[in-house]
Write a structure and sequence with these properties.
homodimer, alpha/beta, 8-stranded mixed β-sheet, 4-stranded antiparallel β-sheet
C-alpha cells in the first residue's frame, strides 16, 4: 500500500492536558490505526507498510511499531500474511441507528416480564411496621464479628475455593440438631441443603421439582416470594383459599387443578396466621402422595410462638413424606446473611444439593462456619429466647393499641406466632391508599390485598400487615394512633 | 365418651432413663392423647372427658390437662364444640407403604434430571492442575479480614436487613471504575449488577432474557457452567465451532438456528484460548442486533494477559450493543466469595437488578463493602499485578515442561491469558482414561472432550486442561513428567 494512505488516515492522538500518565507510544499508534480501520479510512485488504518503513517515517522506534502491529493482529484488526500485515475486512458498521439505544437492545424474556417490580429497598425498611424484618439492633454483632474472623483465620485454604455441595458439613449438622430439638424434624445432616435464604430454597424447588406448565398451589392470600419463584419457573399458579384452620383445598381444586407443587406455611400461615389443622395436614400429605405432588413446607418464623408449645412441623408427621421443609435464619438473625436451608427426603438430597451447587456454586464458607459455631455454642438458642419474649411484649402492645385505636374497624388476625399481626378492615377501605398515606407519614404498612393472586375468585380482603420487628415497644402506641388518624382521614375522603 | 375408652387408649410415656430434662407433664399427656388419635385408638368424633374429670382420674392438676387439650386444639387434633372437646376426623393413614421411601416421594422435574452430576468438590481441588482456581495462598487474607470486620463494625443497621437492589452502590461504583480502566468498558454504576459470581449472572440472563425453547448458542468446546445455566433455563443448545480466531458461526447457524442468546468468551475462549477476531466481533454484534439476540460476553479471566496489552471488551466496540458483559472476582481473588457482576445496557438495568433481587434477595452487604474498599484503595490492582507476573512464570514453566516431556504428543493451546493451558492430543488418546489415571496418581487434569456438547457435529478433540493456579512453580516440571509417564502407559495399554 501507499505509505501516504496510511499517514493521511492516521491521527496520532495527543495526550489530554492534565492526563498524568499518557498512554505509551505504541498504544497511541495502535489506537490511531484501529480508529482508521473501524472508521473505514483504511479499508479491508489494504497492505500496511512494513514496520521498519513506518517507524522511519513516524520517527518512532521499530519496536513501538511492532508492538502496535502485534496488538492489532492479536485482536484481529490486522491479518499477518506472507506479504505482510493486511487490514482485516470488517463488516460495514451501521452506525446511524446506534444512538437510538432503546430500539437497539432486545428486551426481557416473557417470563422476565411477569416478575413484579416492587421489591422494597432502601431507607424505609427499619420503620414501624415493616413486616418480616427482625430487630436488627438485638443481633449479637460483636460475637458474630469474632466468630466470622475466627472462621477466616482458622480456615483450611482448600475451603476458600468453593464450598461443599449442599453446604458446609458443620452447618448441616448444626441445622439437623437444631430442627430436631426445636421443630421435631428428624433428619440426617445429608438431608439438609444450605440455601441462599428461604428464597433460594423456593427457587431451587420450583425449578428442579416441577416443569413449566405444571400446577403450583399457593395459599391465597399468601407469600409473595413463593409466587415469584413459582411464576418465573414457568409454573401455573393456582390459589387455595385460607380459613381459620389454614389452607383449605376443595375437591374441585384436586380434580381440576391437580398440583405438582403445594406451597404451604403450616405453622403460621402467611400472612393470616392460622395453624394448618391436623386433619388437613394428614389429608394433604396423603393426597399429595397419591397425586405424585411435592409439598413445600415453609416454616419461616415458627421459632417465635407465643402461646402453648411449638407446632410440630408437617414433614415429620408421616415417614417418607413428599415434603421439602424450608427454614431460614433471616427472621431469627439477619436477612442480609442470606442463609436458609431445606430438609429434603433422602431420595433427592444428593441431586438437589448438586443442582444447587451447579446453579450458583457453593460459597460463603466462613459465614456458614461462623453460624454453625453460633448454633453449637448455644448462643443461637439463647438469642431466640431473648427475642421471643421481646416480640411477645411488642405483640401484646400492638394488639392493645389496635384494640384501643382501631377496635371495631379492624379484626386482628395473625395467629400466635411470628413477627407481624394482620389487621383486616371490617368495612370497605382501600388498603393501597392507606399504605400510601402511611408512607407519606413515615410508616410502613403492607396492604393485605397485595397478597392475593391477581383475579382471585376468593373474597379479597383489605387490611394491613403490621410487623413488630422494627418498632420499639414504647413507640407502638403512638404509631398505631397515627395510623388510626390517617385511616380515619382516608374513610372520610380527606 | 366413656372415660374408660380414653384411659385404655392412653399410654403415658415414661421419661427415658438418663433423659436429663423429661418433658413437662402436659407435654406427656399431649403426646399420649395425640398418639392415641393418630393410631386410631381414639377415633374421630369421640368426645373427650372434661378437663376436670380427666385431671381427677389421672391425679394431675386441672391446668396440666387444660394445657394438653389447648395444644391439641391448636394443632387441630381436638375440635372445641359446645359439648366439649371432640376428636378430629383424621383421614385413615396408609402406613403400609411408608417404609418404601423411594417409591413414596416424587422425583425431580424433567429439567432437573438433565443437570449433570459431576460438580467437583472436596480435597482434590488444590492439586496440580485443577483449572480455574487461583492461587489461594496469595490472597491477602489478613487485609480481607480487617476490611470485612471494619465493614461490619461501621455498618448502618439498615444495611443488615437486605442489600440494595442490583448490589451495594459502593461496589457498583468501584466495579464501574475498574472495568473502565482495565477493560475499556465505560458504564454508569447503575449498569453494574452485582451477582453471585459469574454463574449467578449467567443464570439470571438465561432465565430473564430468553424463554424456554429459544435457541442459545454456546461455543463448542465451551464453558460447562454456561451450558448448565442455558439448559436448566429450558433453552435449546446449539454449538458453534471454534477455530484459531474464536467462535465461527456459519450462515447455516444463523439461518437454521437463529439465536436468542449468544454466549461468548471473546478475550480468551474457554477452554481453547483464542481471541475472538475483530471481524467476527463486529459481525456478531451487527447480526445479533438484527436477529434481536443478546450476546453474553463472559470475560472470566482476562485480567491475566501475558502478551501485549489487554484485549478490549466486545461490549464497548459499538454504542448501545445488545451485550451483557460478565465479570467475576472468583479468578482474581477467591471463588468462595461468590462475587461477580454483569454490566448491562441502560434499557434493562433496572429490570434485571430487580429480578435478581426477587430471585435470591440481595445480601452479603459487608462482603461487598469490603471488596469495594479493596478495589478503591488500589490494593486490588496491586494484587492483580503480583498475580499476573506469578502466573506468567508458571505458564512459561508449564509450556516448557510440556515441550520437554510431551512434545510432539500434544499441541499446546490456551492463548496468552488466563489460568490454564490446553494440551490437545495429536493422536487418538482417551482423555477420560488419562483423567482417571491422573486422579489415581494425585493429579487433576480436566478432559477436553467433556467440554464438547454431547453429539457434537464438530471434530471432537481429546486433551487436557492444565490449570496453573494451584501448582507451585517448582512442582510443575515433576508433575508434567509424572503426567507424561501415565499417558505413555495409557498409550501402551498398560
Amino acid at each position: 500500500m501507499d505509505l501516504a494512505v496510511l499517514l493521511s488516515a492516521l491521527q496520532l492522538p495527543q495526550p489530554a492536558p492534565g492526563d498524568a500518565r499518557p498512554p505509551a507510544l505504541h498504544r497511541r499508534l495502535y489506537q490511531a490505526i484501529k480508529g482508521a480501520i473501524t472508521s473505514g479510512a483504511l479499508s479491508g485488504g489494504l497492505k500496511l507498510p512494513a514496520t521498519r518503513v513506518l517507524a522511519q517515517e513516524l520517527k518512532l522506534s521499530r519496536n513501538t511499531v511492532l508492538l502496535a502491529y502485534e496488538q492489532l493482529a492479536a485482536e484481529g484488526y490486522l491479518v499477518a500474511t506472507t506479504q505482510g500485515s493486511v487490514v482485516a475486512r470488517l463488516p460495514r458498521i451501521a452506525s446511524a441507528d446506534d444512538s437510538r439505544a432503546s430500539k437497539a437492545t432486545p428486551g426481557l424474556s416473557a417470563r422476565g416480564l411477569v416478575v413484579p417490580m416492587h421489591w422494597r429497598t432502601g431507607s424505609d425498611i427499619l420503620k414501624a411496621f415493616t413486616p418480616g424484618i427482625p430487630d436488627i439492633g438485638k443481633f449479637p454483632l460483636p460475637q458474630w464479628r469474632a466468630l466470622l474472623d475466627r472462621a477466616y483465620r482458622d480456615i483450611n485454604p482448600r475451603r476458600l475455593t468453593f464450598g461443599e455441595t449442599g453446604g458446609e458439613p458443620e452447618l448441616r449438622s448444626a441445622v439437623a440438631a437444631y430442627v430436631a430439638a426445636a421443630r421435631g424434624v428428624h433428619c440426617d445432616p445429608e438431608q439438609v441443603i444450605v440455601t441462599q435464604g428461604a428464597q433460594g430454597a423456593l427457587d431451587l424447588c420450583a425449578r428442579m421439582l416441577a416443569d413449566p406448565g405444571q400446577v403450583a398451589w399457593l395459599e391465597n392470600p399468601g407469600y409473595l416470594g413463593a409466587r415469584v419463584a413459582m411464576q418465573t419457573a414457568g409454573l401455573q399458579l393456582h390459589g387455595i383459599a385460607v380459613d381459620a384452620a389454614g389452607a383449605r383445598p376443595t375437591e374441585a381444586d384436586w380434580r381440576d387443578h391437580p398440583p405438582r407443587l403445594i406451597y404451604l406455611t403450616p405453622a403460621h400461615q402467611y400472612p393470616m396466621g392460622p395453624v394448618l389443622a391436623a386433619e388437613r395436614r394428614y389429608d394433604l400429605l396423603q393426597r399429595a402422595r397419591a397425586a405424585n405432588a411435592w409439598i413445600i413446607e415453609d416454616d419461616y418464623d415458627s421459632e417465635f410462638r407465643y402461646e402453648g408449645d411449638p407446632i410440630p412441623a408437617m414433614c415429620s408427621l408421616l415417614p417418607s413424606s413428599p415434603v421439602i421443609y424450608v427454614g431460614t435464619f433471616s427472621k431469627t438473625l439477619l436477612p442480609v446473611l442470606r442463609l436458609g436451608y431445606a430438609v429434603v427426603p433422602h431420595s433427592v438430597s444428593r441431586a438437589l444439593g448438586n443442582i444447587g451447587a451447579q446453579f450458583t456454586r457453593p460459597g460463603h464458607v466462613a459465614e456458614q462456619l461462623a453460624l454453625a459455631r453460633l448454633i453449637e455454642s448455644g448462643r443461637y438458642a439463647r438469642h431466640l429466647r431473648t427475642m421471643r419474649s421481646l416480640y411477645a411484649e411488642r405483640r401484646a402492645a400492638l394488639k392493645l393499641a389496635l384494640d384501643r385505636h382501631l377496635g371495631g374497624l379492624v379484626g386482628v388476625s395473625g395467629g400466635a406466632a411470628g413477627l407481624h399481626l394482620t389487621a383486616v378492615f371490617q368495612e370497605a377501605i382501600d388498603d393501597l391508599a392507606v399504605h400510601e398515606r402511611a408512607r407519606r407519614a413515615g410508616l410502613v404498612v403492607a396492604p393485605l390485598s397485595r397478597y392475593y393472586l391477581p383475579g382471585s375468585r376468593d373474597p379479597l380482603r383489605s387490611g394491613m400487615l403490621l410487623g413488630y420487628g422494627t418498632v420499639a415497644n414504647q413507640a407502638i402506641e403512638g404509631a398505631v394512633k397515627q395510623l388510626a388518624q390517617l385511616i380515619d382521614r382516608e374513610r372520610r375522603g380527606l
